[in-house]
């Protein structure tokens, strides 16, 4: 596990130590933002991995070559990573199951009052998506397209065509289940992505605006200020001061 500033971790001695353990055949794992440390040591290059969902945009931006999943945890050969929180318990139980059998893992799970050992197939924020998938599966398809196209936002008519919906149907779905228009929801996704990049990387404001699909920095700044109540530069400066204090 690691603090919120893990993306800046660069302790040479620790990284060398981790690489030495890898050469010795030791299994290496991380919890939540600890994946930044393993990635920094180039120990996640040839495996599937995960990290807490809030860190995924920044993680992918810094390490675009990695195979990053939105799953609760990933166990791939000698690497195991998880998204944090109670997902660490699920990963522990799965590791026990792999080595000692499902019966023992289930008995330990019962001791923790853990009713189900979640699998690698389970996604982060799964409960909300399951509820939505049952009541409005087409809306899940629309949201997935939006989340997958942040840097180059898709036009709403194009999304409607791909999901075999009319624009009016999409508007009704968002109004009913999210209380906003499709455009407002898409914009919020891009701004939240921008916030993660702003507060957790050294990328310039102009680069972040481009990475989140804004045609001009001035328009990005205006949207950011309206949504978060502060300009990107002021927000970054404020958070940096709070972290130092």
Commentary on this structure:
The two termini are about 20 Å apart. This protein folds into two domains: about 5-110, Class I glutamine amidotransferase (GATase) domain (Rossmann fold), CATH 3.40.50.880; about 125-245, Orthogonal Bundle (Arc Repressor Mutant, subunit A). With about 240 residues, the chain is mostly helical. The mean pLDDT is about 90. The longest helix is centred in the C-terminal third of the chain and has 19 residues, at about 180-200. Strands 1-5-4 form a three-stranded mixed beta sheet. It is built from 13 helices and five strands.
Report a brief summary of the structure.
The chain has helices spanning 12-23, 35-40, 56-62, 87-100, 102-111, 126-135, 137-148, 156-162, 167-177, 182-200, 205-211, 217-228, 232-244, and strands spanning 28-31, 48-49, 67-68, 73-76, 79-82.
């Amino acid at each position: 596990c690691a603090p919120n500033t893990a993306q800046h971790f660069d302790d040479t001695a620790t990284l060398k130590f981790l690489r030495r353990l890898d050469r010795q055949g030791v299994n290496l794992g991380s919890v939540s933002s600890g994946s930044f440390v393993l990635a920094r040591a180039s120990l996640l290059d040839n495996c599937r991995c995960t990290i807490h969902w809030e860190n995924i945009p920044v993680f992918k931006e810094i390490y675009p070559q990695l195979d990053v999943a939105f799953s609760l945890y990933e166990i791939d050969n000698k690497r195991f990573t998880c998204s944090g929180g109670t997902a660490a318990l699920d990963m522990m139980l799965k590791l026990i199951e792999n080595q000692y059998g499902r019966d023992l893992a289930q008995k330990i799970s019962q001791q923790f009052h853990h009713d189900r050992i979640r699998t690698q197939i389970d996604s982060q924020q799964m409960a909300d998506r399951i509820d939505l998938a049952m009541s409005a599966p087409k809306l899940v398809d629309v949201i997935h397209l939006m989340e997958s196209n942040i840097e180059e936002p898709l036009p709403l008519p194009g999304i409607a065509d791909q999901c075999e919906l009319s624009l009016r149907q999409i508007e009704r779905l968002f109004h009913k289940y999210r209380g906003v228009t499709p455009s407002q929801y898409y914009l919020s996704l891009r701004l939240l992505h921008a916030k993660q990049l702003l507060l957790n990387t050294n990328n310039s404001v102009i680069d972040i605006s481009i990475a989140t699909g804004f045609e001009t920095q001035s328009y990005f700044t205006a949207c950011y200020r309206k949504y978060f109540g502060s300009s990107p530069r002021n927000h970054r400066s404020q958070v940096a001061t709070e972290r130092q204090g």
